[in-house]
Specification:
- This protein is α/β, with parallel strands linked by helices.
- It has 24 helices and 15 strands.
């Protein structure tokens, strides 16, 4: 996998070391050193394309002023055949390198060679990584938070795969526990209200109040009449829950497929209880001396686990003593296991049974306090949860229309459902906008902007660049000028500032993919594509293609078509369509 930015940095190191050894052999510098330094890309290209600090970093061991060292190195540097046309001394001893046509041509050649895999790397070394995301309770329709978490998790998984990880996408279905009991009780109350009248059946204050609960109750009544009313309460509630889940879970799958999200697995919480794995996990924590009994319940000694975790991570004892740490119930006095116990068992399953090297969970910011507790619990099982469990926390979404917040759904009176949103805007716009900010920042989603068809709408701007290139290629093919293979193109003809800036922009994709994977921030891909589209539009307006001399036309057409390929590549990571016409 190529990274021409990294290749340039590495070549500067090699050229600098070779120049140093040549100068040392001539007696101009003391020998026996391996020069260390940094290579940066200056913000202003007037200062060169790359700037190195080797001369300044080497001043102490070479016993000379940085400017003197820099000049000696520059005088002994062999640039012929390299990616660079010149090296200049600047400031206190920076060495500024300017790229030559070989590098620019190599960028376009590498992109052609790698095709759809361009931008990839091997930083992941095929580590098994699970990305678990959305995992919404199946007690109602998915909402705006799920919409953001969905595209964030899906795109992050795509980026990790491109960066060399063996990635798995999973949805954890919370089909057991207290929320399912509350779900059943809510449906049951609406069902009995249909039979006996709302005034005669109180609705539980903590129940789910949405219209979807009424619709489930009506569906049960339509199918079974009042036949379920006489059933024993426990059996009736079990049937209510089963009926509701059989409708809601397929609806969730359908909404997510419409949103272009496909999972490798839908994992059911109930399977952990039915198999005895939750009980076994709690028993292991007890065996490890991490639990105690109090008031008839079994507790996890979370306080001690967190103390150990924080001290390992470098906090002082005084800092740890100031924290408000609390223990957690794993099994209630009535014998039922808590959600936390099931969550520990689920993550043990990920790490111990299925052998994932790392687990990434995309959660809402309101789960912040749960992160360290879960990691510590896995530490208590000897599974190194502090290092193998990564949680990407996600802030809220503010939906705006006409510059004002949109708070209510016409259908339910509560949070706007994902399927309602996708009735209003395109999937492309939804996926782009929900991934447009780093997860830790609140997101303002402007509905009016998302449906605009002009350059103000970034997703339209990017897709238009792709479609514009497709039209250009088609029109020139009809005129007899087709896109040539890189080997048949003279890239040295590309000398205009706009051409070179566009090639540099194309070269950045591997770096952006790697940084997006490293920082768990797939919004970098959005920003990269918007910048690339802008560089293309600038190039297209500055550099004529049709009507130019054949060799220059071929070089510029190849540059345009390479940009098309990279735009399509990046949009593929985002799950966005790359249209050929608009």
């Amino acid at each position: 996998m190529s990274n021409m930015i990294q290749a340039a940095r590495e070549q500067i190191a090699e050229l600098t070391q070779a120049a140093y050894e040549k100068a040392a052999a001539a007696g101009l510098l003391p020998g026996g050193q391996v020069l260390q330094g940094r290579v940066e890309i200056p913000k202003d290209v007037k200062n060169g394309d790359y700037a190195s600090s080797y001369a300044m970093a080497g001043a102490k061991v070479l016993h000379k002023a940085p400017k003197v060292i820099a000049q000696i190195l520059a005088d002994h540097m062999e640039l012929e055949g390299s990616y660079f046309s010149s090296v200049e001394i600047a400031g206190p001893g920076f060495m500024n390198f300017r790229l030559c046509s070989k590098w620019y041509g190599q960028v376009l050649t590498e992109i052609e060679t790698e095709g759809e895999n361009y931008g990839g790397g091997n930083e992941g070394h095929h580590q098994k990584v699970m990305v678990e995301f959305v995992s919404a309770n199946p007690t109602g329709p998915m909402h705006m938070g799920n919409a953001r978490g969905g595209v964030l998790g899906d795109t992050l998984a795509n980026v990790l795969t491109r960066d060399g990880y063996d990635t798995w996408k999973e949805f954890y279905v919370n089909d057991a526990g207290n929320q399912i009991h509350k779900f059943a009780v809510s449906i049951d109350a609406r069902y009995r209200q249909l039979i006996d009248g709302e005034e005669n059946v109180p609705f539980p204050e903590e129940g789910y109040h949405g219209d979807d609960i009424r619709e489930l109750a009506q569906a049960i009544y339509a199918e079974h009449g009042d036949g379920w009313k006489a059933l024993p309460e426990e059996e009736r509630l079990n049937r209510m829950a089963e009926f509701g889940l059989k409708i809601n879970i397929p609806n969730m799958k359908r909404d997510l497929q419409r949103y272009r999200i496909e999972y490798d697995q839908w994992f059911y919480e109930s399977s952990l209880h039915e198999s005895g794995y939750v009980a076994d996990t709690v028993a292991k924590l007890t065996e490890n001396g991490r639990t105690y009994e109090k008031d008839g319940a079994l507790w996890l000694n979370t306080t001690q686990l967190l103390r150990e975790k924080y001290l390992r991570e470098g906090k002082t004892q005084a800092q740890v003593d100031k924290l408000d740490l609390k223990d957690d119930v794993l099994r209630r006095a009535n014998g039922f296991y808590t959600y936390f116990a099931a969550d520990i068992a689920y993550h043990r399953n990920k790490l111990e049974v299925r052998g994932f090297d790392k687990v990434i969970n995309v959660w809402g910011a309101d789960h912040h306090g749960h992160v360290a507790r879960l990691q510590a619990a896995l530490d208590g099982l000897g599974l190194d949860g502090s290092n193998r469990i990564v949680v990407v926390l996600m802030q809220l979404v503010n939906l705006l229309q006409d510059g004002k917040p949109v708070r209510m759904s016409k259908r339910s009176g509560k949070a706007i459902a994902l399927h309602d949103l996708l009735d209003e805007i395109s999937v492309d716009a939804a996926r782009y906008f929900f991934n447009s900010r780093v997860s830790t920042s609140p997101l303002d989603f402007d509905l009016d902007l998302a449906v605009r068809e002009d350059s103000e709408n970034p997703v339209y701007y990017i897709q238009y660049a792709h479609a514009r290139i497709c039209s250009l290629v088609k029109n020139l093919e009809e005129a007899g000028a087709s896109v040539r293979p890189a080997a048949q193109v003279d890239f040295s003809l590309l000398t205009d500032e706009a051409e070179l800036a566009l090639i540099k922009s194309l070269s950045q994709m591997p770096e952006e993919v790697h940084l997006a994977a490293r920082d768990y921030d797939p919004s970098r891909i959005n920003r990269y594509l918007a910048a690339l589209a802008g560089d293309f539009h600038h190039f297209y307006n500055a550099c004529r293609i049709k009507g130019e001399e054949p060799e220059l036309l071929a070089a510029r057409l190849k540059l345009a078509d390479t940009t098309r390929a990279v735009l399509a590549n990046g949009m593929g990571l985002l799950g966005i369509v790359a249209p050929e016409k608009m």
